[in-house]
Amino acid sequence: MPHFSSDGVDIAYRDLGEGEPILLIHGFASNTAVNWVSTGWIETLTRDGRRVVAMDVRGHGDSAKLTDPAAYRPDLMAADAANLLDHLAIARADVMGYSMGGRIAAVLAIDHPDKVRSLVIGGMGANATRRTANAEALARALEAEEGETIPDEVARGYRTFAERTGSDLKALAACMRGQQAGIAAGALATIRAPVLVAVGSEDRVAGSASALAALIPGAEVLDIVGRDHMLASGDRQFKVGVLDFLKRRP
After folding, report:
1. Which of 12, 152, 154, 225 has the fewest CB atoms in 10 Å of its CB?
2. pTM (2 decimals)?
3. Domain range holding 67?
4. pLDDT over 80 at 133, yes or no
5. How many CB atoms lie within 10 A of CB 172?
């Protein structure tokens, strides 16, 4: 993966295909390979005639592993995405994020509206407006010594997923503490790009897709039927819905 410096932070990315550009932003404890390659998203989008840019967000994948929670403010993570588009001389792009990446993508649309042609918020509903539940407990689970008992099932699940993706656990703990704040409803109301909110019908992590869409002018909702937070990310319903949305948006 090539790299660039985003205000001094090393960010890894992929740039594949030709056509109208779309920027992909993955979820917490994931990376480009897990969220977008293994799920078939990059293949789907390039086959549809699109230029796909996908970044490993700070603290994840091949990007810089920072351990200061202040380095993971949502506005800084969104600025990395804006800086990547500038680095590639892309004036504006369709943007899709999943889970934490959906929150970052929304902040990008708020802070850098001229760069976002359309916005797909996947795996993130009304919880985008709320502080991450039990963030400190989740961070402590990520920092736990190997073999240490993690009694909370959700925290244990985060730790297991982080280990499976080969993540830097200390960097993830800092990220959890630094980007846990919700997005203000008033800020979401300023988004003017076409928006699609896509959440699995069995997702217990994201919160209500319709409740989030109600805060964004003109936003559409896509229910990914029968899928939970993990399985929705690469589901065919999701892909078909996004391709249709991209074809219809101005």
Report:
1. 225
2. 0.96
3. 3-129+182-248
4. no
5. 26
